[in-house]
Design a protein that fits this description.
The chain is built from 2 helices and 3 strands; from the N terminus they run αβββα. It is α+β, with helices and mostly antiparallel strands. The protein has a 3-stranded antiparallel β-sheet with strand order 1-2-3, covered by helices on one side. A hairpin with a 4-residue loop joins strand 2 and strand 3. Helix 1 crosses helix 2. The chain is elongated.
Length: about 110
């Protein structure tokens, strides 16, 4: 009888990547909203876009920001599966997805 194997690991990874993408997008929107409420002006830099590129284990979180003061737009890129900030040598997460999203967003914004 043939051995039948599922792609559950791949499904889990893709679901995690999509969850992380949505976290970064939602955190960016909330940080923007809170800044506008507190300061009554647009934040600088401003997050314009967040996307995933590539395939596991080389998936990248890309965050595009615009800095009005310097009139500079650019992408920050984070290969999170290979980051020792987020995963150990065996590939186990060392922090929560919320921490990962917050860190990537903070780094993209220059924090």
């Amino acid at each position: 009888m043939p051995v039948v194997r599922g792609n559950f690991d791949e499904i889990d990874r893709k679901a995690f990547e999509n969850y992380l993408l949505e976290l970064v997008r939602e955190y960016a929107a909330e940080a923007d909203r809170l800044y506008r409420l507190a300061k009554n002006k647009e934040p600088n830099p401003l997050v314009l876009e967040v996307e995933l590129k590539g395939e596991y284990p080389d998936t990248l979180m890309r965050i595009r920001c615009f800095d009005r003061v310097r009139d500079l737009e650019g992408w920050s890129v984070y290969p999170f599966w290979k980051s020792d900030n987020f995963f150990d040598e065996e590939g186990r997460r060392v922090c929560s997805p919320e921490r990962m999203a917050g860190d990537m967003l903070m780094w993209a914004l220059g924090g």
